[in-house]
Design brief:
The chain is mostly beta strands and about 120 residues long. The chain has one domain. It has three helices and nine strands, in the order H-E-E-E-E-E-E-E-H-E-H-E. Helix content is about 15%, strand content about 35%.
């Protein structure tokens, strides 16, 4: 029993929004698996952060129902979530940012998160 509880505690599962189906229509129990350490790009002036899960081409961006702020999900050609944009945040730790979306990730992966300044090109 103690071993099972320890394994369960080593994973973080955050759920937000009004329904687990909110992020991707037609898929019951939608959860974003994070298996590699993410890179968080922070733009403090816009109070926004982008969580890069994979470095691949984004083919679609869809809004995700969030109780706080605005959350947009970026998808690749296979409809995998490759990035998460969170706007309206004032706390930029990965654990605070993922509270807005349904993710499944281990503490070991979260502890390896890298933080960088957003690469803003002049307008």
């Amino acid at each position: 029993m103690e071993k099972r509880q320890g394994a369960r505690n080593s994973r973080v599962k955050q759920m937000a929004g009004s329904s687990p189906d909110t992020g991707k229509s037609g898929i019951k129990g939608f959860v974003i698996p994070i298996t590699e350490p993410p890179v968080v790009e922070i733009d403090t002036e816009a109070t926004a952060a982008y969580i890069r899960l994979r470095d691949t081409k984004v083919v679609a961006t869809k809004p995700f129902g969030s109780e706080k702020g605005l959350v947009m999900l970026d998808f690749d050609a296979d409809e995998n979530v490759v990035g998460i944009e969170v706007i309206g945040q004032h706390e930029f730790s990965i654990r605070e940012l993922i509270k807005e979306v349904p993710v499944e990730v281990s503490d070991a992966v979260l502890n390896q998160t890298r933080y960088v300044a957003a690469d803003l090109a002049p307008a």
